[in-house]
Amino acid sequence: MTNDTSKSRHLSQPLSRRSALMAAGGAALAPAVGGLLTGRAQAKAPMLGVSAPEVHRVKLGDFEITTIRDGAVQLDGPHPIFGHDQAPEDVQAHAKANFLPPDRMEISFTPVIVNTGDELVIFDAGNGAGRRPNAGKLAATLGAAGYTPDQVDKVILTHFHPDHIGGLMEDGASLFPNASYVMPEAEYAFWTSPDRMGTPAEGVAKLTQSNVVPHAEKATFIKDGDSVAKGITAMDTSGHTPGHTAYMIESGGKPFLLWGDLANHYVLSLQKPDWHVVFDTDKDKAAQTRRKVLDMVAKDRIPATGYHMPFPAIGYLEKYGDGYRWVPASYQLNLG
After folding, report:
1. 321 with 271: CB under 8 angstroms?
2. Which of 65, 64, 67 is nearest to 56 (CA)?
3. Cβ 228 vs Cβ 191: under 8 Å
4. Mean pLDDT of 70-90
5. What is the bridge-based pairing of β-strands 104-109 and 245-251?
6. Mean pLDDT on 188-215
7. For the chain, where are the E strands, in sequence order?
8. Could you give the CA distance from residue 280 to residue 240 in angstroms, rounded to a whole number?
9. What is the band of 335 on the pLDDT scale with cuts at 50, 70, 90?
10. 215 three-state secondary structure
């Protein structure tokens, strides 16, 4: 009786980090000792590096939506990229409060493919092979998604930043030889203007000339409210760039928002939508647009995808303090 009581008391004590580590150490030691006793050599596999899924597909009414991981880059941050107008220590503290490193970050890239049943549509084209050491994988990953470049019927662009248009051309030729193109009219006008030359925008303007302009003859230039494909409508979300455009996708009465670069970080852009982002052309307007659209997504409980959200980059928003919280989708869109 005394032994049972003592054992019960021992089991009821909370498990500390130290005791957990000691228990784990003992468990790890057991097979090693077993190996020594039997004389068997222990297999040792090589380190393989970080891995991540590359393709994710869901249903929206009669549509299929596929997100493709074009890769990711690791860099210093989040300040001054995010919270550009804030004190560095405040941005770092907010990152730490959300279990993120205060001085390093990752930015991923997610083009999206929508099969409407009438057309195979791709939104944005990634970085392009060779632009970055760990990105530019769209062309190579299309096969894993079940598609070939010549099957793409329409390419729709949110805006012309390099990580969105870099993959339009591969080895000097169009990656999507049979596609037509949809481009925001204001975006095309801005980046093809001679006024960009000799300014900090010159690099993007030159990439626009080499990667976008060759497709202009096959392009439709659109503005806010235009229908760009079956069930897909353009939405002016300028601020990040002068012609930045999001797209509302709807099938079977079910909406889904593709917001491009409206919000570029799942914590800092969403929880702090008024903070300036260094990549935004008009930082005040971008913040105003961001808050307006994010409020709609949260209030109407619309599933959404953002180009730089953590892969598979599909989720929901809920109000969180003065901002919003990213809620990754689980099985909601697997059910048709």
Report:
1. yes
2. 67
3. no
4. 97
5. unpaired
6. 97
7. 55-60, 63-68, 71-76, 104-109, 112-115, 120-123, 154-156, 169-170, 173-174, 180-184, 219-222, 227-229, 232-236, 245-251, 254-258, 304-305, 314-320, 323-328
8. 4
9. confident
10. helix
CA 150 – CA 140 distance, rounded (Å) = 13
Exposure string of 15-33, with b = 16+ CB inside 10 Å and e = fewer, is eeeeeeeeeeeeeeeeeee
pLDDT digits (tens, 9 = 90+) for 306-331: 999 999 999 999 999 999 999 999 99
Dist. CA 293–CA 259, nearest whole Å? 9
**pLDDT for res 35:** 53
Global pTM reads: 0.89
Residue 326 carries which side chain, given as an amino acid letter?
W
| Amino acid at position 72, single letter | A
- Which architecture does CATH list for 55-334? 4-Layer Sandwich (3.60)
C-alpha dihedral, 254 to 67 to 219 to 211, nearest 10°: 160
pLDDT for the residue 183: 98
* pLDDT higher than 50, residue 84: yes
Q: Which pairing describes strands 120-123 and 112-115: parallel, antiparallel, or unpaired?
A: antiparallel
Calpha distance 121→300 (Å, rounded): 25
The set of residues, in sequence order, having a beta carbon less than 8 Å from that of 243 and lying 6+ positions away, is 159, 160, 184, 185, 186, 187, 188, 189, 190
Tens of pLDDT, residues 105-119 = 999 999 999 999 999
What is the pLDDT at residue 20?
A: 57
Is the model's pLDDT at 126 over the cut of 90?
yes
* Angle of CA points 291, 201, 214, to nearest 5°: 100
Query: N- to C-terminal Cα distance for the chain?
Result: 59
Distances (CA, A) of 273 to 88, 109, 135, 276, 286: 17, 20, 27, 8, 9
* pLDDT score recorded for residue 133: 82
Question: Nearest 5 degrees, angle CA 61-CA 67-CA 69?
Answer: 175
